[in-house]
Amino acid sequence: MAEIFTAVLILLVIALALAGASVRVLREYERAVVFRLGRLVGERGPGLVLLIPGIDRMVRVSLRTRTVGIPPQD
Fold first, then answer.
1. Domain-by-domain residue ranges, the chain?
2. 3 state SS for the chain
């Protein structure tokens, strides 16, 4: 009986680790480009993004505008 409990506990820990590795949170000024095995899957918006661990790869893209100070011309 103890062996079954141990096996179930190990499977539960593995499932929780995979679930934790598959969830990403994007802020409202970020977007994600998702690749599955190197091929483009699509773009995801802000909020929760679910990925398949080990298969999907996510690249974050910031939509914030950068301002650069330009020195005045003479």
1. 21-64
2. CHHHHHHHHHHHHHHHHHHHHCEEEECCCEEEEEEECCEEEEEECCEEEECCCCCEEEEEEECCCCCCCCCCCC
Number of C-beta neighbours around residue 44 at 10 A: 18
Report how far residue 17's alpha carbon sits from residue 54's, in angstroms, rounded to the nearest whole number.
12
pLDDT per residue as tens digits for the range 2-51 = 899 999 999 999 999 988 888 999 999 999 999 999 999 999 999 999 99
pTM of the model: 0.71
Q: Mapped to the 3 state alphabet, what secondary structure does 28-45 carry?
A: CCEEEEEEECCEEEEEEC
Sign of the C-alpha dihedral computed for residues 13, 14, 19 and 21 taken in this order:
positive
